[in-house]
Design brief:
Blueprint (H helix, E strand, L loop, with lengths): L2 H21 L15 H16 L8 E5 L6 E5 L12 E5 L17 H9 L5 E5 L5 H5 L20 E2 L1 H5 L10 H11 L4 E4 L3 E6 L2 H24 L8 H12 L3 H12 L2
Parallel strand pairs: 5-6
Antiparallel strand pairs: 1-2, 1-4, 2-3, 4-7, 6-7
Helix pairs in contact: 2-7, 2-9, 3-6
This protein binds manganese (II) ion (MN).
Amino acid sequence: MPALLRRHLLLGLATTAVALHAASPSKAQAPASAGPPDPALVEDLVAANRILVDQGVVDGYGHVSARHPASAERYLMARSIAPELVTAADIMEYDLDSVPVDARGRGSYLERFIHGEIYRARPDVRAIVHNHSPSVIPFGVTGVPLRPLYHMSAFLAGGVPVFDIRQASGGMTDMLVRDAALGRALAGTLGAAPVALMRGHGAVVVGPSLPVVVFRSVYTEVNARLQAQALALGGAVTYLDPEEARRAEASITGTIGRPWELWKRKAQGR
Ligand code: MN
């Protein structure tokens, strides 16, 4: 091979290598930490995991996260572990692409993109629960809308959208929100609502704090159970009027600390 041609080839290879390296500088680099979170928030996040188990909202599956108090671009969530087993040492920090800041060999939930993409789309949201809450499943697959029929679930009055992953992906999936594109589609379906159902899968619940998102998760499950019972009785169901819902939510919101303290104490007593 002529020396000049050989030199060009080598130069070309080197340029390609530099270009490839430059195209993915972040792959090898973990995102920066927003700093250690407030221990009281971590304590609440651990408690939230256990409360959601106690209340039948999550089982061996499901997860709950909180936005990092020091940065809107970071959130906190347990490593991939059953919620009942979560301790403070399991809490990891993620950026909004759901890349862990400091994995140290700890695995991540496959569906963490639910959290990252909703935090990105909803600046008002500071806590998120994803669950397979059993009583909500029928409302995600029948077209029967989930609606508030008592004061505890007044927050559902604006409507509960249903996310269909088949429409979002344009084909067959394993039903899991396992990448950012599906997470963005779910966030789009959720819109400004506090709850979205996921067809054939479960639900996502959001709120301004851990106590509120836990409260909403518990009473979404209870409302779904009660609504199915009311529908099964066969008569016409009277749901909350939007004005009743507005007033009831305003009243109940001020009392959420009461069940939260009870649930937290029980969860910590185990
Ligand atoms: Mn799931």
